[in-house]
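User: Just a sanity check before I run the rest of the batch. Below are the structure tokens for the first item. I only need the designed sequence back.
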């Protein structure tokens, strides 16, 4: 018997449709759709919003902690820089206060009495006085000397150069001629200050004293061998 092609095609289509429907039913049977009530929806929505709020709060806390940490690192670095600056300034103060040994370029001045005086009445003009040493020190300081010593005794702002009979005292210690003043600073500036006609060195030479200025590439000056302790001064409130 001869089959009708149209009926055959219709039969084949029906079989395939059944197969697809069976497959869809099997695959979706294990995943049923959940239908929420209005109360359940409100509950789950509220929980979701609370979780979102909590998560947002955690993000804000994390950001605040990170900012605090950054500020801590920044302040620590600032404090470190301040501390280093203070330490550096303290070391500079100690250098100028004579509490540290120093070295650098500068000049040496050799001074000695003259022995060519004719009588005892003129002897005072031919010997070196404490005022002579003090005048030279002041000229060196005005010329920019950063460190000075007299016969190895460090000079600083409270140094006293006094005359005790026939000898001179520096920082309470006796020194005798020949004298050597060492100064660290710009050698050219120091030499110029001591060499001009108006300098005290020029006056000493006119009196017949021996004065020689020597330029040095490096001069060593020792620190103070004692420390001044105030007895009367107090910090004002």
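Assistant: Here's the designed sequence for the first item:
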């Amino acid at each position: 018997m001869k089959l009708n092609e149209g009926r055959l095609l219709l039969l084949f289509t029906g079989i395939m449709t059944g197969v697809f429907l069976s497959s869809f039913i099997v695959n979706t049977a294990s995943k049923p759709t959940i239908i929420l009530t209005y109360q359940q929806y409100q509950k789950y929505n509220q929980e979701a919003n609370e979780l979102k709020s909590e998560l947002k709060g955690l993000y804000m806390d994390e950001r605040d902690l990170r900012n605090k940490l950054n500020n801590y690192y920044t302040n620590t670095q600032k404090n470190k820089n301040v501390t280093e600056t203070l330490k550096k300034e303290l070391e500079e103060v100690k250098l100028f206060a004579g509490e540290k040994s120093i070295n650098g370029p500068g000049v040496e001045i050799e001074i000695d009495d003259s022995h060519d005086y004719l009588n005892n009445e003129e002897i005072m003009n031919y010997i070196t006085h404490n005022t002579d040493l003090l005048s030279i020190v002041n000229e060196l300081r005005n010329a920019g000397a950063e460190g000075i010593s007299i016969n190895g005794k460090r000079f600083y702002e409270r140094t006293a150069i006094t005359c005790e009979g026939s000898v001179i005292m520096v920082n309470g210690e006796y020194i005798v001629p020949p004298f050597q003043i060492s100064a660290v600073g710009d050698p050219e500036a120091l030499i110029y200050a001591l060499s001009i006609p108006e300098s005290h060195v020029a006056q000493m030479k006119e009196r017949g004293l021996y004065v020689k200025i020597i330029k040095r590439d490096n001069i060593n000056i020792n620190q103070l061998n004692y420390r001044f302790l105030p007895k009367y001064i107090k910090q004002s409130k």
